[in-house]
Design brief:
With 121 residues, this protein is mostly helical. The protein has helices at 4-20, 24-45, 56-64, 74-86, 98-120. Helix 1 packs antiparallel against helix 2.
Amino acid sequence: MKSNLQLALEDLKSAYLLYKEALYNTSGFHSQQCVEKALKFVLEKHDVYVRNQHDVRFLLDTLKSYEATYFEFDSDVDMLQMVYTASRYADVYRELGEKEALELYTAAKKIYDFIYKKHAT
């Protein structure tokens, strides 16, 4: 069975490939999914399991009570949080542009890399 961190890496790779194909909304969604799964991976290391929670702001705030080093990702997570629904559902749909999709991917990669270096090596 794959860990949430392995699944996060798959989402990160998907976000990049989709970005390169100019599928910016779907790229943004996978960037958010990467961070969601990576944060869940760290929470699981603290015996905190949140299955049906997709709010990366909630996940980060929960994690910060265990590890203060995650405060540096507040603005990145806020940016990623807004694309979860806005990139997926017609009633709140918002088109992402190339620049915004790249910013989301970059934020996701930064958070993933931090978590990987801190917890997977």
